């Protein structure tokens, strides 16, 4: 975890996001410092995943500005919702990795190829170099011996660990996790948590996690943000949020999930 707070690498300024008549984010402001590990917790439907999807440019937004790794993206007034251009998308995908709830591994590729393909195709890395790096990463997540297996031969927890290695293979500055354990049986959560806990010690890596698993919020974050109805109601260190939450809504939420 970080001791020093650096300059922001992610910054939402007055971002508004609507799905038809539903406003999910209304003039949303939020920033994450380089190297910071931040967890978003909060009720279902409050807009947490939408924040991540906007960051990955998987969702356009209608108003405001998003700054990511020194590049600003904003809606052009009068031209409709902001849609990332191909060039923006490539730039963002270079800096930002995402780990999804559903692993999303390529079923027809071995574990090793799943990790190797993006650096070779997107970054133009030599295959031998990408393979050496992939083996190091698979070793880090405890799966080097499964490199020639196919995803279907792995447990959900193992598949998610491969997905983390795959995201890291792109050497991202920012790693986003969207409920990385919610598709897993409870006994498999621990192995994924332990890999993410290890990553939390990587000083330069910025991590933003959306999770319903409070152990993640407690164990890997510098800052926990309680999100409700499209805004951050309360934020602080894990000790503050879990030990002495100030807002009634935060207390209600925590007592419902920790019950
Ligand atoms: N593609 C979409 N079209 C229409 N509405 C959507 C779409 N995606 C999300 N929403 C709505 O936006 C709101 C916020 O959804 P979001 O998935 O961001 O919430 P969340 O806090 O991540 O919830 P959960 O914890 O259940 O994943 C919800 O009301 C959801 O129904």
UniProtKB/TrEMBL annotation:
The keyword Ubl conjugation does not apply. GO terms for molecular function: ATP binding. It is found in: Cell membrane. It comes from the Bacteria. The keyword Cytoplasm does not apply. Transmembrane segments: none annotated. It is a peripheral membrane protein. Keywords: Amino-acid transport, ATP-binding, Cell membrane, Membrane, Nucleotide-binding, Plasmid, Transport. Residues 10-254 form the ABC transporter domain. Belongs to the ABC transporter superfamily. This is Ectoine/hydroxyectoine ABC transporter ATP-binding protein EhuA. It comes from Peteryoungia algae.
């Amino acid at each position: 975890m970080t001791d020093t707070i650096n300059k922001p690498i992610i910054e939402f300024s007055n971002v508004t996001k609507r799905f038809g008549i539903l406003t999910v984010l209304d003039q949303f402001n939020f920033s994450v410092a380089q190297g910071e590990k931040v967890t978003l917790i909060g009720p279902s439907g409050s807009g947490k995943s939408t924040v991540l999807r906007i960051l990955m440019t998987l969702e356009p937004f209608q108003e405001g500005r998003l700054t990511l790794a020194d590049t600003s993206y904003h809606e052009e007034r009068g031209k409709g919702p902001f849609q990332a251009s191909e060039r923006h998308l490539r730039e963002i995908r270079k800096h930002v990795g995402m780990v999804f709830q559903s692993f999303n591994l390529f079923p027809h590729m071995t574990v090793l190829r799943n990790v190797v393909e993006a650096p070779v195709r997107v970054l133009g890395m030599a295959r031998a170099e990408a393979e050496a790096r992939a083996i190091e990463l698979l070793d880090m997540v405890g799966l080097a011996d499964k490199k020639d297996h196919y995803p279907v031969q792995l447990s959900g927890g193992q598949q998610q660990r491969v997905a983390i290695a795959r995201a890291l293979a792109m050497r991202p500055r920012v790693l986003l996790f969207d409920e990385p354990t919610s598709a897993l049986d409870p006994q498999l959560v621990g192995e994924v948590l332990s890999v993410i806990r290890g990553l939390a010690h990587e000083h330069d890596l910025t991590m933003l996690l959306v999770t319903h698993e409070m152990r993640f919020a407690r164990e890997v974050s510098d800052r926990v943000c309680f999100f409700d109805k499209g805004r951050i109601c309360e934020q602080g260190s894990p000790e503050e949020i879990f030990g002495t939450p100030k807002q009634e809504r935060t207390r209600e939420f925590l007592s419902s999930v920790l019950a």
